[in-house]
Amino acid sequence: MFGYVRPYRDELKVREQRDYEALYCGLCQALGRRHGFLARMFLNYDFTFLAMLLDGDKPVTQRHACPARFWCRKKNCASGGGVDAAADAGTILTYWKLRDTVADGSFWKKNGARLLCRLFSGSYRRAAANRPEFDRAVRENLEALQQLERESSPSLDRTADTFAKILAAAAPAEGEQARRRALEQLLYHVGRWIYLVDAWDDLEEDKRRGGYNPIAARFPGQEKENREYLRTTLRHSLNLARSAGALLELGYWQGTVENILYLGLPAVEELVFSGRWKTANHRNRRQRT
User: Fold this and answer.
1) Dist CA 162 CA 172 (whole Å)
2) What is the CATH number of the domain that holds 156?
3) Based on the structure, what is the number of domains in the chain?
């Protein structure tokens, strides 16, 4: 995935920070346990957000060795049903993202993604067996998105909608209908936000290599002039995601999810539109390791 969905750490409570890090660590452990060591290499914040939404219970913590720092045993490592479900969904999304890169990436990215697909195929099959309906939804919507890209679709709504349906499909099929509907809407609008923020983040690179970008297709040669139009539609998506979130009882993770929706995503958006995102993200990765 992309890694845009993260909290604004300066405003997290101490307990929220501790448990968020434990959940991130627990998701890494679940990826390794369920889908092998390679799956851990694709862990990001988006999957952690999904794990919080899928399981509102207080996390069960365990002590585990950290694969990134072999001398360190993590004191808190959250586990639970939501963590395992997010690990399966994340593995499926990673595989199809790699397949998409094979179809649409640059020469070197295509070859790298092709190799990773082969190495990752066993992990994907296990995850798809656990969540076949989600796997079907991801495959069908990515195929539809690829067709729109081949047509150089100038519609931001059609492309963003197709991607957003992928995330909405991660909502569990069972449970109370009202809750499921609200969760689908929250994931849908966060997915739409991710797609458009990523499109702006990749705009210059896509133009340089001649790849498809929905913003360039919608506003050819006038992307910068329509910057505020794009930010308005992003704010609209965030407001709808927050409205859906207000209908949900998120239990133990309520405060952290609200931090992400109201503070974390706007902060990331500002970094992307000010051109500081890649530097800030690189610095954050170095701090984590």
Assistant:
1) 19
2) 1.10.600
3) 1
